[in-house]
Write a structure and sequence with these properties.
globular; about 350 residues; about 25% helix; 6-stranded mixed sheet; alpha/beta
Length: about 350
């Protein structure tokens, strides 16, 4: 067993209103994390605490290290899974906003839900075929996998001690004060930290794992693995909406447009990235918004000098996957101003999500 230096633990209470009714973070920093980096990460966590009132504590281990070429930061989240029925019931009990009501009404009562999928070993169109087909039976449609932090927001049982590990590359120039803009040649550290925390809170997609298995034959059978996440329950395409038996979600890995929708695809929301394999995706991990459209903090890329801000798209997505809005959440047009006050990417490619064991 390798010896490891002890971690520096900093318990940070970041509340919108009171400690008994707010999202809080318990941050554990490695000794290589400077005080400036620690303070900036706390400011990033405070952004999420100001938005959500869930009385839960999210435990994050944070540090810096030499990462792969061009990787600014990465998050590895603890994943847990539940029956779709339990998740459906948790969504029912968690309805605290108008969007929650709409999103819940779009869900199938279960015990299974329907989805389009492709590139599986048992695709009826041929093993690993890119042609989508309807799946509404088996493990992939009666089980949901999510981050442990997301499960806490839905009041589902969680036994994990740590919810995520977030690491920043130590070979880049960062700007730690977004209140006066981001310096040319520097990356927005607080914005990047906000993004990585967003993954830990549940902005992930199992399509990323489908992509990985698709290029490592023989792939997997759609009824033998469970990778659909809470956010995937609101992932649609024109094809999935037009399904003969009614709208279903789109869990495919291909270049067709995929979008966020809380009403079974009737209203097309922000677009999603379609997969990190550029041979049958857009080259961006599916656990993000579509790139280069300014859709929100969960965009897949960022550049030097770019100020990163939480958008109305981000807030709506987190709201419907289980996080409860604080009573006095600002209007969407003021999110960016509020954020300033709290003060592998294409330019550098961003490995935003690592697979959980």
């Amino acid at each position: 067993m390798k010896l490891r230096r002890p971690l520096l633990t900093v318990a940070v209470l970041l509340a919108f209103s009171s400690a008994s009714q707010a999202l809080t973070f318990n941050l554990t920093f490695t000794p290589t994390t400077s005080l400036q980096e620690q303070a900036a990460f706390q400011a990033a966590a405070a952004r999420w605490s100001s938005l959500f009132a869930d009385p839960v504590t999210v435990n994050l281990a944070v540090g810096t290290a030499a990462l792969g070429p061009g990787i600014l930061a990465q998050a590895g989240s603890t994943r847990v899974q539940y029956s779709y029925t339990d998740v459906y019931n948790a969504f029912s009990a968690d309805r605290t906003s108008a969007d929650d009501q709409t999103a819940f009404s779009s869900l199938t009562a279960g015990p299974n839900f329907g989805m389009l999928i492709n590139r599986t070993s048992n695709n009826p169109n041929g093993a690993l075929s890119p042609t989508p087909y309807l799946d509404n039976t088996g493990a992939n449609t009666n089980t949901i996998r999510m981050t442990s932090a997301n499960a806490k927001a839905l009041n589902l049982p969680v036994s994990a001690a740590s919810d995520a590990t977030i690491t920043f590359g130590n070979s880049f120039t960062y700007d730690f004060n977004p209140s006066d803009g981001i310096n040319p040649g520097a990356y927005d550290f607080i914005g990047l930290a906000t993004h990585e925390i967003g993954h830990a809170l549940g902005f992930i997609s199992g399509v990323d794992i489908l992509v990985g298995n698709s290029v490592n034959p023989p792939g997997f059978a759609d009824d033998a693995f469970t990778y659909v996440n809470t956010l995937d329950l609101f992932r649609y395409s024109t094809l999935s909406v037009a399904n003969a038996s009614g709208p279903v979600i789109d869990f495919t890995a291909d270049t067709r447009v995929k979008f966020f929708s809380i009403n079974k695809g009737v209203t097309q929301g922000a677009g999603f990235s379609t997969g990190s394999n550029s041979a049958f995706g857009d080259g961006r991990q599916a656990s993000h918004w579509k790139d280069n459209l300014g859709l929100g903090i969960m965009d897949p890329t960022a550049g030097t000098g770019e100020l990163l801000a939480i958008s109305a798209n981000d807030v709506q997505a987190f709201d419907v996957i289980g996080w409860s809005l604080a009573t006095a959440v600002p209007e969407p047009s003021t999110y960016a101003l509020m954020i300033l006050g709290i003060g592998g990417l294409l330019a550098r490619r961003h490995a935003a999500q690592q697979r959980a064991a």
